[in-house]
């Protein structure tokens, strides 16, 4: 017998083997052909940045969204020989904002340190192979 169970924000559905043997009766909802952001990618046909693009990972809407948009726009529209070289101040402002929210924007070094610590903890107590003598 299949049943559903709500666990926090998640809905868990348990099904039986028999449930899987019958064809699905689910109907797919057609995508809205008038959605201006659907399947557009990062850059819209008019050349503007699609801030709703999932490829931005929500960066445009977080607490540092405005700083991100400013820095990204500056870089995107840059015509300098070294693209984005005039955007250093915008990127600095964005970085300062992100440092105020380390739980949302972890630094690469912090992520690498956590991963290194996890690997070290896993290896603790394991016998390390000794170097071969020559």
From TrEMBL:
Signal peptide: none annotated. It is found in: Mitochondrion intermembrane space. Residues 102-134 are annotated as: Disordered. InterPro entries: CHCH, CHCHD4. Keywords: Disulfide bond, Mitochondrion, Oxidoreductase, Protein transport, Redox-active center, Translocation, Transport. Residues 64-100 form the CHCH domain. This is Mitochondrial intermembrane space import and assembly protein 40-A. It comes from Huso huso.
């Amino acid at each position: 017998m299949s049943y559903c169970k709500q666990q926090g924000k998640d809905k868990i559905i348990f099904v039986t083997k028999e449930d899987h043997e019958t064809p699905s009766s689910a109907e797919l909802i057609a995508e809205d052909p008038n959605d201006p952001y659907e399947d557009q990618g990062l850059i819209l046909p008019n050349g503007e940045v699609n801030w709703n693009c999932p490829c931005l990972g929500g960066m445009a809407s977080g607490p540092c969204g405005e700083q991100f948009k400013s820095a990204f726009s500056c870089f995107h529209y840059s015509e300098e020989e070294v693209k984005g070289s005039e955007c250093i101040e915008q990127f600095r402002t964005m970085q300062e904002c992100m440092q105020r929210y380390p739980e949302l924007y972890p630094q690469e070094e912090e992520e690498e340190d956590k991963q290194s610590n996890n690997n070290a903890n896993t290896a603790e107590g394991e016998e390390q192979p000794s170097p071969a003598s020559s």
